[in-house]
Design a protein that fits this description.
By secondary structure, the chain is of the alpha+beta class. It folds into two domains: 3-91, Phosphorylase Kinase, domain 1; 101-329, Aminoglycoside 3'-phosphotransferase, Chain: A, domain 2 (Alpha-Beta Complex), CATH 3.90.1200. 53% of the residues lie in helices and 13% in strands. It is built from twelve helices and ten strands. It has helices at 3-13, 45-60, 101-118, 135-151, 160-185, 188-194, 231-242, 249-260, 267-278, 281-291, 297-320, 322-329; strands spanning 19-23, 26-31, 34-40, 79-81, 84-90, 94-95, 201-202, 211-214, 217-220, 227-228. A hairpin with a 2-residue loop joins strand 2 (26-31) and strand 3.
Length: 330
Amino acid sequence: MELHVLNWLATHWALHPQQVTAIGPVYRVDTPQGSYCLKQAKHGHKRMLFHAHVLDRLAATGYTGTPPLLPTVDGALFATTPEGDVTLTPWVGETLDFDVAEHRLRAAAALARFHNATEALDWPPHVPQVTFGGKWTYRFAERLTALDALLAEGGLPNDAFVTVLRADAPLLVELAQSATARLAASAYEQLVTELATRPQVIHGNMKAANCTQLGAEEFLIDFDSFRIDLWVQDLSDLLLAALPHVADGRALLAMVDAYQAVRPLTPAEADVLVALMSFPYPACGVVLKHATGLRSPEKSLRKWQAARSNLVQLCEFLQKWASALVLRVK
């Protein structure tokens, strides 16, 4: 066991665990009283105050879909150490399997319940609001410009990866252009403006690894990316995370239905949802990272295999199922 972790547990929570296991960025803490999740914050103290407020107020409303912060011996919601802020929550369940249709639907419904619960949150003056809404208008345009420049003659070195990339470049650029135009034509900017008077708290990192189950109850874990943003940003992330696990777009439409059964979308949100889903993030990311020179052509090729598969799936979804998604809301 790492000594500083044991010190945190003993000093701030009076816990003396039987076992501490590092699992990715967190520690599983097993004690006679139960199992806990110890996590060091990724962000600064200001953002930790925001995260703690959201989790504390959700617990106070009776919402149980996120693990509550367990107070320190001093009654604080998190401990401040020389290494940064640290939190302790109950360890909740097993990760949902997105290869299983029922699990995908449960994750979508759990996300909708989370969004409904955050709508009632209050915002005292001392709590900083972490806002990230509106970024995609310029991010889409920025990435498209960078992509055009890199794919132009001489923009990238003539190596094994770029030779393969050239064959897929037209589809990649077409999707990026279409997504940028779709977002500009949607109500995205209007909905972002409305966040100033009606804040929407999102999870910010929706994927299978952050959806767990304990018995019949679902939980959303990992609160490092909580922020004020559009709820459909979360839903877009969730659907894109599920895309590699489904046979076709009908499975994603079923997830939208499961979400809507708990929190119905508006027509404006549906248009924005499709726009946010449309940008080829993974494929664009492989190209931009290769351009930095930090990846070898061989590694970029390996990354491109998965990114290209995602590109083809995304293109098929947009061609066959995106209109159906919008129409089922309208």
